[in-house]
Amino acid sequence: MPHRTITLDARPPLAVLTLARPECGNRIDHELLTQLREALGDLAESGAIRAVVITGEREHFSLGWDSSLLAEGAIAFAAAQRARGSASAFDFIADSPLPVIAAINGAAFSAGFELALACDLRLASISARFGFPEAAEGRLPMGGGTQRLARLAGRGAALEMILTAEPIDAAGALARGLVSAVVDPQGLLDAAERQARVIAERGPIAIRLAKEAVAHGLDMPLPQALRLETDLTILLQTTRDRAEGVQAFKEKRPPHFTGE
């Protein structure tokens, strides 16, 4: 299926997905959501890609939901997500077996911010801004933003951003732990790709299980989460990649992971 609202640049072991609706600030509609979901799924199945970067074309990451989608209403939108088996619009990013890095150029508002929050890691340019304007418009973030923001930044910081509907800059996002680094706009994509390549060199099964341990463990009591960690560690011991990692350590050479 040709992509009309995103572009894909696959350079194994990494791929860059770019939101490509710059004429409207890369606003997110059903078509973009569908194409992004399908592209990320295809990359995960390919076996050649081990890390993904998501960014926006031109000056913005994403200004949020497209007006055509908002016109449908929140109830219709929620029903459409549940029909796909998702609790929120960007679960397919959070649940991807691949590590996903957001390279946030310019504004990430509303759904754009929610998309970034669903990624595993976030880097921002110094010109980036983040916010949920929904309360000022009599609406509520509806793509997982209230929950993912609170889990990342804490209850107080999340409520401040959501209730005031005031945006923050890149420095504010760094201070709140929403991004791991702030870089010059010209070097943003290079920085994200460097981080993606570092992750791609790690054991892919270990990366996938680590994502699972963190994602599910946060919603469990600590003793149950620790058991999950142990169970996943035992599972990892049965893989060829784990044996390769041990052998490479003994032989003092870089490991060659195959994902098996």
**Beta strands, count:** 9
- What is the C-alpha radius of gyration, as a whole number of Å? 19 Å
Number of DSSP helical runs? 12
What structural category arises from helix and sheet content?
A: alpha/beta
CATH architecture of the largest domain: Alpha-Beta Complex
Shape, per Cα inertia axes: globular
Distance between the termini: 29 Å
What would the average pLDDT be, to the nearest integer? 90
Domains (count)? 2
Task: Characterise this structure.
The protein has helices at residues 30-46, 67-72, 74-83, 91-94, 111-118, 145-153, 155-164, 170-175, 188-200, 204-217, 222-237, 240-251, and strands at residues 6-11, 14-19, 51-56, 100-104, 107-109, 121-125, 129-131, 168-169, 181-183. With 260 residues, the protein is an alpha/beta fold. The protein has two domains: 6-200, 2-enoyl-CoA Hydratase, Chain A, domain 1; 204-251, Lyase 2-enoyl-coa Hydratase, Chain  A, domain 2, CATH 1.10.12. Helix 10 packs antiparallel against helix 11. The protein is globular, with a radius of gyration of 19 Å.
In short:
With 260 residues, the protein is of the alpha/beta class.
Task: Summarize the helices and strands and which ones pair or pack.
Blueprint: E1 6-11, E2 14-19, H1 30-46, E3 51-56, H2 67-72, H3 74-83, H4 91-94, E4 100-104, E5 107-109, H5 111-118, E6 121-125, E7 129-131, H6 145-153, H7 155-164, E8 168-169, H8 170-175, E9 181-183, H9 188-200, H10 204-217, H11 222-237, H12 240-251
Helix pairs in contact: 5-6, 6-7, 10-11
